[in-house]
Every structure is written in structure tokens, then in C-alpha cells.
Design brief:
Blueprint: H1 7-20, H2 32-71, H3 76-86, H4 92-101, H5 103-114
């Protein structure tokens, strides 16, 4: 008895994978084996990139808070230590936004922390 192969399903799987390769250059977009490898590697990078994005934003917030704190004669570590000790429930994202876009509000936070 001849072997039965489900060409419909395998073709659909390849078609969906090649849709993901849209925009790639050269053989990466239309040769199945090359495209498959490129897509798998791209998905790995996308996964790790989502983790790196969180790290990058946190470091950006820290730099902005540090710059704002130094304008008021304090280092970042001193400022964060005092914020935690004073019990202010402001995270780094909010503090960075205040330091960059609302200097008067950030100064009020610094004054509240120094008391």
C-alpha cells in the first residue's frame, strides 16, 4: 500500500512560516529551509529582546533620576535610600517622569524626602 502524506497540512504550515518571513532579504524570504532558520532565530531574539527592553527602561529611569537628584545636591543612591526610608510609594518610572517633565514636582519630592 502506498504511503499517505498529508500535503495539505504541510503546505499550510510552510505557507504560514513563510508569511512570517515577509520583508526578509534574499533567500531568507522564499527558500523554506533558510526561511525556517531565520524565523526561528528571529523569534529567539524577539523573546530575549522583550526581557532586555525592561532592563533598558529601568537603566534609563535610573539615569534620569540621578540627573534630577544631582541638581539638588544628592546622588542617586542617597536619594533612593531616603525615598525608601521615608515610605514614599513612588516607583522609578514615576520618579523619572517627574525629574524630566515636572522639575517643580520632583523638587517637592526631594524636599519631602529630606525632612
Amino acid at each position: 500500500m502506498p504511503r499517505s502524506v498529508n500535503h495539505v497540512a504541510s503546505r499550510a504550515k510552510r505557507k504560514n512560516f513563510l508569511k512570517l518571513a515577509k520583508g526578509y532579504y534574499g533567500r531568507k524570504k522564499n527558500v523554506w529551509t533558510v526561511a525556517k532558520n531565520a524565523i526561528e532565530k528571529g523569534l529567539v531574539h524577539a523573546y530575549s529582546g522583550r526581557k532586555q527592553k525592561k532592563r533598558n527602561y529601568r537603566s534609563l529611569w535610573i539615569q534620569r533620576i540621578n540627573a534630577g537628584a544631582r541638581e539638588h545636591g544628592m546622588s542617586y543612591s542617597q536619594f533612593i535610600g531616603k525615598v525608601n526610608k521615608s515610605g514614599l510609594e513612588l516607583n522609578r518610572k514615576v520618579l523619572a517622569d517627574l525629574a524630566m517633565n515636572h522639575p517643580a514636582a520632583f523638587k517637592a519630592v526631594v524636599d519631602a524626602v529630606n525632612k
